[in-house]
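REQUEST FORM: STRUCTURE PREDICTION
Request ID: SP-0412
Submitted by: Lab K.M.
Chain count: 1
Length (residues): 221
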Amino acid sequence: MDCVCGQKAVYQGSGRSLCKTHFLDAVEKKVERTIKDFDLIKKGDNVCVAASGGKDSLVALFLVKKYADPLGIPVFALAVDEGIAGYREHTLSDLRTFCGHLKIPLHFVSFKENYGKTLDEIHEKALKQFGKKPCTVCGVFRRASLNRKARELGATKLVTGHNLDDESQSFLMNVLLGNMSHNASLGPITGLQEREGFIQRVKPLYFVTEKETRLYEGLQN
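STATUS: Completed
RESULT:
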């Protein structure tokens, strides 16, 4: 099925068939509308994008930069080096290349710097003493590291790459596990009011699906 403009469609969803140009435009307008409707980013902000090097964070970084530049809003990327041997070096290298191409300032914070140990070292100790899986430990330490470093760098907003699928899964898991109070942290903006010591986390991709995110990244190469 072709796009309404007659070009070959690259995406079909929500009753629409879109060519490359119209699909990219639709995603960008959706993100722009989310930012404006929920006041996620505004003039006077200093925006930090949590960048792992994965597709979600790269798309979020690209689109936030595209939105912020015409408004004169500064944007920088912040990556956490957890210290995962044989994995993190590769993704961080790709992230450096990406940020260099778009002229986005890139900063780093490491578990070693904050906690004196890498994730590999923390994992072994946590598993023995507390029976905690590495993903549990990593998530807590990673959020704390991002918040602390972003504050040091003067950020007023912390962007994450959570998309619609991520939020839906989190909501359902909280319901199934009886953690309904955790759903209060979901939504386009985490924390309706600023709290001392914590930077508000915002999610420009909140209404963008996993499929759309993956395709957008692929088409933008």
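NOTES: Residues 134-152 form the longest helix (19 residues).
Reviewed by: T.R.
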